[in-house]
Amino acid sequence: MICEMCGVDVPRLRRIVIEGSTLEVCTRCEKFGQDYEEVKDREGIVGRDTIAERLERREKRLRGRDVLEGAEKELALDYPKRIRNGRSKAGLNQEELAKKINEKKSVVAKLETGDMVPDNKLIKKLERALDISLMEAVGPIQAPKHREESRGMTLGDFIKIKKE
What is the largest CA-CA distance in the chain? Predict the structure, then answer.
């Protein structure tokens, strides 16, 4: 029998609980945990996790997540124009708008020229102050379709030409 902790082959193993996991270990490793029967009686442990269950939980934990998943809106590409138009409709100059949203005039100027991309907090301030929408709905992203004749020359094409 092989110890699940150190991997040594021994004739007898003992079941212990180490940080919530039940393991079959040798006598040298049993000092790192508590006796299974004692913990079972005290905490009411029923059964033991199978290796498949542990692997499944591990895979789920390590699986990558799409950070854009669930994001329905994003900043419009023409946000500088929307901010400039909203400010002029409200009859404000850059300095007055800056005071209204509690920012510097230079921030408003950079936003209107597109030199600065606003964070979510600033977007909300601008939308409330100017009664505009800077966010727009995002549709599913589709890969561009390439036609064979319009793809251009690749390195592989160049190598084929050179050989001929």
Answer: 87
Every domain of the chain and the residues it spans? 14-62, 73-137
| 122 neighbors 128 (Cβ within 8 angstroms) | no
Quick: pLDDT tens for 88-104.
Answer: 999 999 999 999 999 99
DSSP string computed for 73-129:
EEE-TTHHHHHHHHHHHTT--HHHHHHHTT--HHHHHHHHHTSS---HHHHHHHHHH
pLDDT per residue over 102-120, tens digit each? Answer: 999 999 999 999 999 999 8
Q: Beta strands 34-35 and 14-18: pairing type?
A: antiparallel
- Which of 135, 141, 120, 16 has its CA nearest to residue 73? 135
Query: May I ask the CATH architecture of the domain 73-137?
Result: Orthogonal Bundle (1.10)
Q: What is the pTM of this model?
A: 0.45
d(CA 107, CA 115): 9
CA distance 138 to 68: 10
Q: Compute the distance between CA of residue 133 and CA of residue 1 in angstroms, rounded to an integer.
A: 67
**Which residue type sits at 144?**
P
